Amino acid sequence: MTKIGFIADCQYGDLDDQHQEGRVQRFRQVPDKLKRALEALSDCDFVVHLGDIIQSHTSKEVTEDEFNLICSIFEEHAPHMERVHVLGNHCIQTLGRETVMERLRIPEPGYYTRDIAANWKFVVLDTTEMSGHSQFPDDSDQVLEANAYWEEHPLSPFDAHMVSWNGGITARQREWLENELECAQSSGTCVIIVAHHQVCPGAARMTHLAWNHGEILETITKYSAVKLFLAGHDHIGGGNALCLRAKARNLQYFVTVPAILEAPEGSNAHVAIDLDMFHEQGCTIQKPSSADDDGTMPIIPFGARCHHIMEHLGDLSTS
User: Fold this and answer.
1) Nearest C-alpha neighbor of 234 from the set 277, 199, 284
2) Quick check: 175 and 141 in contact, CB under 8 A?
3) CA distance to 137, 148, 156, 186, 252, per residue, from 244 (Å)
4) What share of the chain is helix, strand, coil (3-state, %, to 5)?
5) CA nearest neighbour of 93 among 126, 50, 58, 61
6) Which of 44, 70, 227, 313 has its CA at 20 to 30 Å from residue 243's CA atom?
7) Above 80 in pLDDT, residue 135?
């Protein structure tokens, strides 16, 4: 049995609670919630954090302390699990790419693959690469491409995702993604894509989708090898499913994992997926019906296809 745990947006900072869009961001509760989440996922082979591991301060010294605390929790409470980390917009604002990537063992250039099990692998995207917070030099290809994309796609009611806290992937990363998916398709390998920003409308609010989500989604939906896409960033979470063929079994699932930062008091947010049940039930995402059963926050589906994802994700049970 191969089992994977997912956690999103620890976004820890030594800060008082803050209110955002009617929700509470409980910064100082994050360390204990993360410990409990990792304990609940202790039977997993992998744990994936979907970006924004820290909030980031203007003070580099304070941010380093906060970053080291959360990293140490992952290291001490998940020593037997393989850890997979994704870059988020908050991660690199103060500490920079090099420091964060080195400690989290994210290989250059920030996007990469990782084998999971026989005929399964992760494809990890870096949706901070083309953004206003990438921390690349001003004259780098990444920043020049981001600036050009921003100018060509100004914020509007039709492009509500073109805001500063979002980002996307460059043409070079899209080419790399296409090559990885082509190889996976040819070899019969199943793919789980993870990123900080969601790319599927309906799986997150439009204001939280990747800048060039349409282009990324077009690439992904060409390949039935892709079974799952998981992201963070939109703290309330969400889910959607797209049918690639006439038969319902040819679905791609897009899930946005709720932020542990905003989990209610006494609870924590995490998702567990058992790959060995995939071919039997499409995919099983284990969670209770409420946040109080074992501290796992349920995924909140959005969009007209929400009944699709709940039907085809299989049985929902306590992790």
Assistant:
1) 199
2) no
3) 40, 32, 30, 17, 7
4) 30, 20, 45
5) 58
6) 44
7) yes
Phi and psi at residue 259, to the nearest 5°: -75, 130
Question: Which helix (DSSP H) or strand (DSSP E) does residue 150 occupy?
Answer: helix 141-152
**How would you classify the pairing of strands 120-124 and 190-194?**
parallel
**Helical (H) or strand (E) element with 85:** strand 82-85
* Rounded Cα distance, 283 and 165, in Å: 31
Bridge-based pairing of strands 18-20 and 120-124 is unpaired
Question: pLDDT tens digits, residue range 219-272?
Answer: 999 999 999 999 999 999 998 888 876 444 578 989 999 999 999 888 888 988
pTM value? Answer: 0.89
Element (H, E) at 252: strand 251-256
Spatial CA neighbour of 165 closest among 128, 204, 110 = 128
pLDDT at 20: 87
Give the pairing of strands 285-286 and 271-274. Answer: antiparallel
- The dihedral of CA 158, 171, 108, 144: what is its sign? negative
**Secondary structure class of 254 (helix, strand, coil):** strand
Within a 13 Å sphere around the CA of 197, how many CA atoms are in the beta-carbon half? 30
Return the number of other C-beta atoms located less than 10 Å from residue 140's C-beta: 12
Angle between helices 96-104 and 60-77 (to 10 degrees): 20
Give the confidence band of 277 by pLDDT, cuts at 50, 70, 90. Answer: confident
For residue 127, which of 139, 111, 140, 143 has the smallest C-alpha distance? 111
